[in-house]
């Protein structure tokens, strides 16, 4: 009897340590992923947004992006012609400014409904915001497989639309390769495939393919002419700049 | 005929074997028979209003929309908001559900001088608890047009949780799952389920329950009547067997031909059992009457004797059914007509071929000649038939006068006939679907969807302006509360940009405002992908045919005056369909009756080789139909998708009684030359057969009173009334006319 107990205890201990090293690993992996994704001071580049509906019909938009840190960003649409000049400035605390050139004026948009999609894409405001994953989620290492770590991320806030996000993190470079979003009914609702390229010192998400599995609608964001750390200042992210 | 009859006996095994094989085949096929509870598919494609409605409903998703209404004394309570959230969540995480909108997750857009704030009307993770917060939520909700009467009823006692289904989902399965999940929440408030997907689910259950319950009952009722009339195993088994086989074959053929069961065709089995057993009864009767020693000879003679009358009876009945093919608006009624006619013919063929073959093959001869019924027949004869003939002979003119009076009253009644096209009326008063429909109507401005379709450049200021004007015009009608279109959204967004709640004059501005709307869940319900088509979605609160007619007329005039080459406008929706259905009910009643009367007179005249006999035969049934329509007018039983069928069916079945009387009268007249005696004996002989036949068909159809579908209940009742009517008129009006016609002939003959 005693023997059995001891062995149970031992295995429980192993399990405990095993789990704790696991947890340690998971948060390290996630932190490293955050480092890869959010380490540049600033970034500029061109963004091509391809929207593909369930019938395979494509719609293409183009924009330039400027980003500073994790919470300041300007999208300026350049194409199609009817939307050229439309700009969106995102600032901290869920404040956005929208500029429509046909009206010649900007409007402040405060949105607390972050599950809404950004400008007809399959990215929600929630997906777009650059809050560190390690702040938003509690990670758990599910398994290591091939050249990826598979993490299960549980949202810290109960207000998240997701019950969990399964992330595959590249083992050597720590950039994400695949994210699978589950709703609170535990159904996979969205899927993002990442293609990273090294530009200078940084890994760049050259292509993100986000699929809304319910609507069968897809958005591909492709980055080009990306430059890092060109010295953008806070003045580049003001309402006055938005109009230019 | 004896030759045919001999051939049947000779080939008995082949006949029995092939019937068995076909029954197995068709029986297997019925496994694949599906139920179509989608009433919309029954709308005819050749009617522009109906086909546009189907197209628009599918394209803009209105037909995939459902609604759960939660009712309480006041929905602005924390506990109730919590329950709304529970329902919202359980719908949100149901497979096949695309979007859910409710009080607890609806977006709220507040615009101010400096911009807009997009948030939720209610923070679902932090529901208001304090009374002051709940009150301000209530006031705010009622202050906005987009919530009041849409998501919360005007009196604040009910709230709607609106959901749409994915277009490729199995709608009925999802509807069922939603209902199960929400009912499992066991909420204390009253819940109502509405919208097409849930209604279809209900109809499906009704059809199944009708089939499960009615068929055994009708079997039992007919078996009892057969037992009373024949008092033999054979007399019960064979009619039920042939009617049953004809049901199996008919359903099998429907399945093979790719048809589905609908709320109308689900009664095909009941109708066929009631109607189809009659032919075998005739055949057995005839065989029984051949009092020959040689049983085989009796069989041959009996069958030969009855073939013509049975064909006549079946063909006229089938004609009544077929007449719907030319008159009906809804395809499900045409299908019903075709397949009951097919089933009737199958029953006929079985009674001629299969029944004698079975009797001969299995030696199902009667063991002994049943003792002549000593009790029942004299009752029937002495208490009813003899007094009847005496009255008739004494007062033929009174009989006709009495009938003339009844007919006059009925004709007045005919003008009071109402039509009913509202699908909610098809359900019993306590049926959840009907109750839900009534609540939706009372609290949320009705449930009859209206679509006004605009074709043109949806980003052009002119088209959007036209939409706004049309919406204003629509709202002048008291039955229209809420309208919704992309033009509303453009106006709101223009307001957000600080330029007022109106459509901008500049197309460039509209295109940029569109940027804000792109990808919103509501957009596919308002415009198509390439922005060449847009709809105004609205609901009509009244189901009164007069209101519907007035609105449709007014709208069509408005459209005529307002559309141009850049902007084509069309109106569709349930009111338009109901308007069409309404006028088509009257047309189809008239057409199918005229066709049926014409065809019946033609067939009877052709077979009896006398036009006057054909016309005489038609008199009692035409009189019956007038009385029937009169009763409908007086009692307020409306003309609807099922009761519109009664006239022609009653005609097809009822004509048999006249045929019996006329052929019997002819035979007797040929034998004894005395018209009055002939009439007396024909009433005494055929009268009995007629009364038994009326009783069995009546009993079969009265089973429909147990149907879950109101028009079918009325249908059963009315057919019952018509059976009594045509039986009675064949025994009173027709003989009276024959007596008078004969006396007149005598007088003229004497004068010469």
**What is the CATH homology-level superfamily of the largest domain in chain B?**
Multidrug efflux transporter AcrB transmembrane domain
Compressed to H and E, one letter per element, the order of chain A equals HEEEEEEHHEEEEEEEH
> Order of strands across the widest beta sheet of chain B?
2-5-1-6
Task: Categorize the overall geometry of chain A.
Answer: globular
Uncertain runs of chain A? 13-21
Distance between the termini of chain A: 80 Å
Chains forming the largest contact: A-B, 34 and 31 residues
Structural class per helix/strand content of chain B? alpha+beta
Class derived from helix and strand content of chain A: alpha+beta
List the defining traits of the structure above:
heterodimer, A: 244 residues, alpha+beta, outer membrane lipoprotein receptor (LolB), chain A, B: 752 residues, Multidrug efflux transporter AcrB transmembrane fold, Alpha-Beta Plaits, 4 domains, 4-stranded antiparallel β-sheet, 10 strands, 65% helix
Describe the secondary structure blueprint for this structure.
The complex is a heterodimer of chains A (244) and B (752).
Chain A: H1 2-38, E1 42-52, E2 58-68, E3 72-79, E4 87-91, E5 95-100, E6 105-111, H2 125-128, H3 133-136, E7 137-145, E8 148-155, E9 162-170, E10 176-183, E11 188-199, E12 202-212, E13 217-228, H4 239-242
Antiparallel strand pairs in A: 1-2, 1-13, 2-3, 3-4, 4-5, 5-6, 7-8, 8-9, 9-10, 10-11, 11-12, 12-13
Chain B: H1 2-10, H2 12-29, H3 48-59, E1 65-71, H4 78-92, E2 97-101, E3 107-111, E4 115-120, H5 131-143, E5 158-165, H6 171-184, E6 190-195, H7 196-230, H8 233-256, H9 268-289, H10 295-327, H11 331-361, H12 376-394, H13 396-414, H14 432-443, E7 448-455, H15 461-475, E8 480-484, H16 486-496, H17 507-517, E9 533-540, H18 545-562, E10 568-573, H19 574-608, H20 611-635, H21 646-672, H22 675-702, H23 710-731, H24 733-751
Antiparallel strand pairs in B: 1-5, 1-6, 2-5, 3-4, 7-9, 7-10, 8-9
Helix pairs in contact in B: 1-10, 1-11, 2-8, 2-11, 6-7, 7-8, 7-9, 7-22, 8-9, 8-11, 9-10, 9-11, 9-22, 10-11, 10-19, 10-21, 12-22, 13-20, 13-24, 15-16, 15-18, 16-17, 18-19, 19-20, 19-21, 20-21, 20-23, 21-22, 21-23, 22-23, 22-24
